[in-house]
Amino acid sequence: MRFERKLSFFLMASFLLAIVAAGCGDFFTSGNSIATVAVSPVSFLAAAGQTVNFTATGTTVNGASQDVTNTAKWTSSNTSVATVSTSGVANAVAKGTANITAADGNGSGTASLIVSSATLNSGGLTISPTNPSVAQTQRTQQFTATGTFSDGTTMNLTNLVQWTSSNTSIATINSNGLATLVTGGGQQTTITASVTTSSGTVTGTTTMTVN
Description:
There is one protein chain. With 211 residues, the chain is mainly beta. It folds into two domains: 33-116, Sandwich (Immunoglobulin-like), CATH 2.60.40.10; 120-210, Immunoglobulin-like (Sandwich). Helix content is 13%, strand content 52%. It is built from one helix and 20 strands. The chain has one helix spanning 2-29, and strands at residues 34-40, 43-47, 51-53, 55-60, 65-67, 73-76, 82-84, 89-92, 96-104, 107-116, 120-128, 133-134, 140-142, 144-149, 154-156, 162-165, 171-173, 178-181, 187-197, 200-210. Strands 2, 6, 9, 10, 12, 16, 19 and 20 form an eight-stranded mixed sheet that branches.
């Protein structure tokens, strides 16, 4: 009977110790786990046969940044357009678009890879509408980005470029070109769309005035 009590006590103590150890392990390691991942460049326009080096930066739960390019799991949404290696090197296969994604821990990030048979003209990225005046009551404004290529063709790049607003206290803009007004009347912000190419970054801009 005494032996059985000792055995029960020992088992219970071991069980509690295992719980405490597991809890402490989570406490000390969870802050270092990856919470979000950002892929760079955000958008890239390449010719078939070209390789593109993408990098992935992870941010931990405690806010620290670290390079996770070689530890992230890389995938391509369309392998007939582009493939990607375990180290983030994408190979442009054929004309089209593909999302290149890096996942690590609890985070993942995506970049757009556009494969074209022609090059994007310098200054060949235009945004519409041009210099719009938007009433504050309108709340949102949709922008589109169009690329003009060396062979004379055009392509809607709205969902593929990187969008930024020069003054996010006036308006923010999402990855699909939808601007949301923040504050009001008589103020302006510059809306920019950009895409990286092998020859450099091509941008287009327009000014939005909030009435």
